[in-house]
Structures are given as C-alpha cells and as structure tokens.
Amino acid sequence: MMKLAIVGFGPRGLHALENLFLELSKIKTSNKIDISLFETHKELGSGKVWDTQQADLNLVNISERGLQDLQGRNEINYQQFVIPNFPSYTDWCFENDRADKKDVDTFPPRNKIGNYLKERCKSILKVLEKENCVQTYNTLITDINQKKEKLILKDIDKNQYEFDEVLLTIGHQTTEIPKDIKKYQENALNGNFICLPNVYPIQKIIDFEAENKNIAIRGFGLAMIDAVRALTIGNGGKFVYKKPTNFESEFKTSNKIPNKIIPYSLDGLPVIPKPLSEKIDNQFAVSKEQLKAFENRIREVANNKENVRDNSFLIEEYAKITANIFLNIYYRREEDDLTEEDIKNVIFKWLTNQEFKHKLIQKTNIPTEKLIYNYVQMACGKKKISLDFCAGQVIRHCQPTLYKSFSHAAISEEIIADVIQFDEKMKRYSYGPPLESMQQLLALHKANILDFSVVDNPNIQFTKNGWIFEKDNHEIRVDCIIDSVLSSPELLKVNTPIIKNLLRNDVIQPIHSKLGIHTNTNGTIIFDDKKTNASISVLGRLAKGSVIGVDAILECFGPRVNDWAKGLVSRI
Length: 572
Known about the structure:
about 575 residues; FAD/NAD(P)-binding domain; 3 domains; six-stranded mixed sheet; about 35% helix; L-asp_N-monooxygenase_NS-form; FAD-dependent urate hydroxylase HpyO/Asp monooxygenase CreE-like FAD/NAD(P)-binding domain-containing protein
C-alpha cells in the first residue's frame, strides 16, 4: 500500500486529491493508496484565503463571468465506490439561488468562493473517509526527512508520520519582515502607536480602534483596498450609490472610522480597475488566431527553439496584439495619422520603460485622485482608452496562455526570472480590482478621509508624537502603520519551519535566487545534479519560476495539478 501525504489542503490540495482519484480510476489495479491530509486551518478545501468566516467586504478581483472557467468535477468510479460529481462554480451559484445576472460584471466576496470550495471538499471527503482512504490532521508540519526510502514528517507537537510520497501545496508562506516594518514596530514600542505587519486576517483591522487616528497603509494594491474597506465599512461607514450603473458613490461616515487613511508606496501609482461590463471588456478580447500565434511564439522560446536574451520576445508579442486591438478602438473615436506599426513601437517602448511618455499613454504626473478618475472613466467606457490601459487588458486576456505555455521553460533561469518580473510589473493593470473598489476610493477622497498627499515614496520620521510622513513640503502625522505589501515567493526569504528545514537539509533548492522551488513538469523536485526526487512534489506558489501564474484561483484548478496526478499514478 502506498502512503501519500498532502501537506496543505486548500483549493490546490483539494484539486490534487480529485485528480489523483480521476487518474486512478483510469487504470486497473487492486493496489490501495492511503492518504493523509495535513492542514492548519480549520476549514478544509478553502484555506485561509477563502475562509468562509471572513467579512463580506473582502472581494475577489475576478468577476463572476471570469469564474465561469472554474469547472466542476465529473463523477469518478474507483474500484468499488463512486465519488459524486460536483457542479462548476457558475452552476453551483444557480443551484444555490446566488447567481446575479446583470449588465455589469459583479465580483463576489471571497467567502462565497470559500463556501463553494468547502462544499466541494466535503462531497469528496465524505466518500473517501467512509472508504478509509483518507484521514485528516489539523496540525502544522515543520520538517520532512528522508530515511532510506521513506519520508518522515514531523509536526509542531513532535509527532512523526511515515510516507512513501509527499505533496506540498502550502500556498503563501511568511517571509522575513521588511527592514522598514521592523523599524516601525520598534518605534511603536516607544509610545502609544501601532505597526501591524500584515492585513490578514482582516478581522483584526475591523476590530482595531481606529477612531480619530491617522492610519498609514504601506502598499497601494489590492490588499490596501481590503484594509481601507475594513477601516471604513467594517467600522460602520456606508457607500451610497449615486449612479448604481457604474458604482459612483458617496461615503456616509460613522464615529468609529479613522480621521485619515494614508496609503503610500515606492511609486505612488494606483492599481487599474477592470472594465465595467462584458461589452466593454470585449473591446480588448484577443482573437483565436492571435492567441494561437502568441502561444506558438511562447512555446518556441520555452522549448529553446529560438535564442533570446531577455523578455523582449514577450513584449514584442504583447505590443503587436495591443497595436492591432487599440487601432480598432482608437479609430472608432477619432481619426489620426498613426499606423499600426507606429502604435506597436510606442507600446513596445512603454512596456520596456514605463516612464516613457507619449500622447496615447495616460500621464501619471497628475494628482492621484485625477489619475484614478481617468482610469475609472476608461473602465466605464466614458473616456477615450489610453494605450497603456488597452495594453493591460490585452495582457490580462493573454496571461492564461502565457502561464500554460511558458511554465517549465527549458531556458536559462535568468530569462525566466526576467519574464516573471515583467509579468509581476504588469499586474497593476492585469490583476486590477473591481471598478466598484476604485469608485469607493474616490468617494473616500471626496469625503476627506483618504489622503493621497504623501502616496509617492514619502520621507518617514518617528517622533514622540508619532510618525511624520513628508512629501513635497507637505507633512502629516500618523498613529498607526499597516503593511499591506504581500511578500513574494522568494524561497530563500521564506521563514516558516518546514521550508527552512528543507533548505537546511538540502532537500529543495530555488530555480533562481529570487524565485521558488525547482520542479519538473509533474511537480517533483529537482536537485543541483539535475536528478529528481520523486518522493517530494510541490505545486503552487512555492514553485514560482518553474511554474508561472501561481496566484489566481483558476490556477489552483489548472493543468499542472493533473500533471502531478498522472506522474504519481505512473509511479504507482
């Protein structure tokens, strides 16, 4: 009997279990498999990110329409029992009377997806537990050691477990606290001030006594928006829609919200809202022919059939597609003498260097609230689309193909890192929030609560009266700092026990100094000598570099999980 451990049982661990039994059902074998699931969170299948108990104000950044791609599970007949089918996310919404069909895209709260995952998990575990195929442990695994041909897992209570194979699907891991946050935490000890090193779980921010305080938020992205909503909606404030069709709103305050909320980041640039509706988004849709050509070029590079030195091959492809799509949108609005080649050259220069300026590209050296307003109007279809906005949406449409075609690329680690760095940089556009979120930021600014005066890399000094944020001769005093910058999956900076011990024992190594664990296509890990340890596999965020595109919920149900299952069954 093979003994398998799945360490981390959120969405990716759930889908790994589903795929394993799907692949097992295709072969005729009397061999038994004994599976142990290790998860620290009380809810199986959803994990911390999709916790069903979190506040409704935590929204996802993928629309209900986008979630149509979250496919269900077909019925699985394995040996003497049946694992029932489970509906797709969209069908599940209809079955539960929670579908919301509107002319504008809607973005569900994370706990709604959590409920879907939780129910999907229960439906398979109910069968597998009854058949004695699976047991679950609510504990933290801290170490994995190899003893002859067995893997010995140790948990936080020193209990030991023995397995033939281990799959790590442990998702986001904490890393070293940034130096500036460490310094602010030390500052806070010297007065009645607070520095919170992370946003999640969001309830701690909702429970925080924010009344009459000035609260700074490090970071200007999606987690910052969650923190802002926790400090406002979570403290009794309300957004009243002036125009429900585009979420334009006014903020009605309460006596519990902060005096000021002050976001700041290294460049002070906001995230870009997604288009309001399917109709508007369809302007940026990439044709099947364009996607196929894009995929072919990416695969040529990934398979080392084309010699490249950096990420410019990817930028060229994005520039070519963007120019074609932009020209159609642009000429519907006004005539100009720019050719498609001209536009392609402009977007290539901007994608290479986002300080490049052109009349077609949105100026960023304007007040932040005006910049957000301009992008909001573009997302509503009320303002002429800028070339950078168009490029961001085109990249969003191309990303699934990039992630599928470029993962496990047979080229140098430096080029892989270069591609990932570019993809991360463009997520300000492609992974943008719902339009509603940005309208809320504008409403809070109009209400003199959200303060953008020091958003762009301010100077920060600590005094006996708190932190003083200064930018361009403007100063504002701060009582509390919240860090909303999520750590990147740099393996060498991860500080959780299991990863530190695996590194110390030379069981794993990064594919690049700034990336994650080096793995094969089937998830098994690779060593310095290029040999594979088939006993340990890694899926998800910690394999970033070997795999790209690891953060989205749809990637948890992507093809890499099935590749692992096929590999394991072949070894069985």
